[in-house]
Design goal:
alpha/beta; Aspartate Aminotransferase, domain 2; two-stranded antiparallel sheet; 12 helices
Length: 327
């Protein structure tokens, strides 16, 4: 079986012998049977727009006094924003070189050109001085990325954007509920995007949203999202099953079994030629297209319900994280 990666098999057995493992994703261990049934009922009912709206209002309340429009992914929120702003061929979007490929691909999708700025070693965001050096007459958008919960030098970047009259987007995909000079991230720019995929503080498996305090911009984004499609039902069922899987296995006691199942699935796919069914929205990670799901798309209603549960416990979860950092 030379086609099997022996290192992964050895690592899997190493996991078996270890009592605890810590992973990048925390499953929804707190969801009891009643909550799971609520989520399941929504999955198998018609799309619930009111639930999505309630979720969006609750998200907005966490960030500030603005408005939220949700999507199936943060990159879709960014793409929709670029389309509403009529960013396209001949335009440039300034962003840090240390960013996710899906952000770059969203820029490429609208026909614009991504321009990369150096990283500020103090906060892993874009260097405001290098941003200024990269501005040209074609620069239409600056993306100020907050990384790992650490706000970038948003004061300097927002000042630069205002001086140059350039639209400023805060990329807060991995920085929720952080503040700079007493102002929460998301409230410095003209708009902000957030992510709620399963690696983020608010975990809805997939998902993201746009936040803005500009009512006219909010209305334009909302209008652009009203008729968006949803993921197909089979895809949503796979997401629900993944929710149950991560609830059981994505915790320190059971994480090792996920690694073992990963190797098992790898072997069976190689032997029987079984295809790996798409769960997460990974099709546009390495190319600016997606053939296996709608792009952009609405966040599924049942995941909006999961998001509501996540927001209900966010205050306690945030305190736990703070206490861990103090140790």
């Amino acid at each position: 079986m030379a086609f099997i990666n022996s290192k992964r098999i050895i690592d899997a057995f190493r996991y078996i012998l270890s009592p605890y493992q810590f992973g990048f994703v925390v499953g929804h261990y707190y969801l009891d049977k009643t909550k799971i049934e609520e989520v399941k009922d929504i999955l198998f009912s018609s799309s619930n727009e009111k639930l999505r709206q309630d979720y969006e209002r609750k998200l907005a309340g966490l960030i500030g006094d603005g408005y939220v429009v949700s999507f199936a992914a943060g990159r879709m929120a960014f793409y929709t924003l670029l389309k509403v702003l009529k960013i396209g061929y001949g335009d440039e979007v300034l962003m840090t070189g240390f960013t996710c490929s899906v952000m770059v691909n969203a820029v490429l999708r609208v026909g614009a050109k991504p321009i990369f700025a150096d990283i500020d070693p103090e906060n892993f965001g874009p260097d405001p001085y290098d941003l200024e050096m990269k501005i040209t007459p074609h620069t239409k958008v600056i993306v100020a990325q907050h990384s790992f919960g650490i706000p970038c030098n948003i004061l300097a970047i927002s000042k630069l954007a205002k001086e140059k009259n350039i639209f400023l987007v805060e990329d807060s995909a991995i920085t929720l509920d952080s503040s700079f000079n007493g102002v929460k991230t998301g409230n410095w720019g003209d708009a902000a995007i957030f992510s709620s995929d399963h690696s983020k503080p608010i975990n809805t498996l997939i998902g993201g949203y746009l936040y803005t305090r500009n009512q006219r911009l909010y209305q334009a984004i909302l209008n652009a999202s009203v008729d968006l499609p949803e993921l197909d039902h089979n895809h949503k069922v796979r997401l629900f099953n993944r929710l149950l899987y991560e609830k059981i296995f994505f915790n320190p006691k059971n994480y090792k079994w996920d690694k073992i199942f990963d190797v098992y699935n790898l072997i069976t796919r190689k032997i029987f030629g079984r295809k790996n069914e798409l769960v997460f929205l990974e099709d546009d990670y390495d190319r600016p297209i997606s053939a296996n799901y709608h792009y952009p798309a609405k966040v599924p209603s049942f995941l909006a319900k999961v998001g509501m549960f996540e927001l209900d416990r966010w205050s306690d979860e945030k305190n736990i994280r703070k206490n861990i950092l103090k140790r």
